[in-house]
Structures are given as C-alpha cells and as structure tokens.
Amino acid sequence: xxxxxxxxxxxxxxxxxxxxxxxxxxxxxxxxxxxxxxxxxxxxxxxxxxxxxxxxxxxxxxxxxxxxxxxxxxxxxxxxxxxxxxxxxxxxxxxxxxxxxxxxxxxxxxxxxxxxxxxxxxxxxxxxxxxxxxxxxxxxxxxxxxxxxxxxxxxxxxxxxxxxxxxxxxxxxxxxxxxxxxxxxxxxxxxxxxxxxxxxx
Length: 201
Known about the structure:
Layout: H1 9-37, H2 44-55, H3 83-97, H4 106-118, H5 125-140, H6 151-157, H7 160-174, H8 181-196
Helix pairs in contact: 1-2, 1-5, 2-5, 3-4, 4-5, 4-8, 7-8
C-alpha cells in the first residue's frame, strides 16, 4: 500500500514527514546499540531498516537494494549488480578506520557522500545517507548528540552547501582522488550548531 505524490501531494507530504519521525526513533535505537556494541553494529541491515522506515507507504521495495538502473538528474549511479559489493566496501572502510586519528566527521562525511554516490535504493537514498551519517557522528561523540534540531533536519532546511560539498567530492572522485574534506568541514559546522542549540531544549 502506498500513496503517490502525483495523486495526493498533501497526503504524500504528511506520510513522508511521519516516516522521518519514525526513522529518527529507529535511528536513536540504532545509536544506542552501536554505542554498546561498537561500530561493527553499523551494517547493511541497519541501512535496510533506515531506508524502509524512510519510504514506508510512499515507495515499494523499501529496505532492499535496487535491482534496476536509475537516473538521478544528470547523474547515472553504478550498475545495480555492483551495489552490494560497493556497500560492503564502504562498510569495511568505516569499520577498519574507526577510532583512528582522523577527524570525527571524516568517516560520517565519507558515508554521506558514498551512499549518495552508490544510490543503493530505489527511493530514499538521501534520507538514508543523512541518517547513516548522523548515526556515525553520534557514535563518534559517544551517544545521541544533544541539541534541539538534529543534523539531518538542518541539512534538509538548507541543502545548498550540502549539495555543493557532495559535488566537490564527486569531482575529486572523477579525477581519481578520494577527498571529502569539504563535506567533513561542513559537518563540523552542523555539529557545533546542534550542540550550541542546547539552551533551546
């Protein structure tokens, strides 16, 4: 059962908003589990669950990797046969580099960019990428970040610098380099803004 935006834009928007609230509740549970079990708790099953929550009743095949080609504007994501392997490699990079000397925003920035680049799901890729990024940011800080407004919501409210940082990472990748420094710096600012918002809670 699902509603199409074309048929009922208001109902679609309402369901999408409720999905984001449910996804955030699920995300806080995931963060608690990750804080107790370690970063290895961040796996493809976490991604599947976060995606399923984000697209419930507005898209079919939620929580499953896509099995067809898709087009995102003028960007053509990798072939669907490559998706499971690409996600596994992304997760391996996170697990193998967690807790090192890198800035706490570097791996979350990598996941935010890489999930958008892979586009592993038919729908809800941005919402899932932002949730996964927030999961890792919180894990890096030892638990759910304090503050009135969570980072995924802050990104949604002002997407211009977010899209610009993603495109910069894409350009570096096309040139044969992995460089997500701009995205990591962008996330640092969002973390500061969220924590500064403590007085409003």
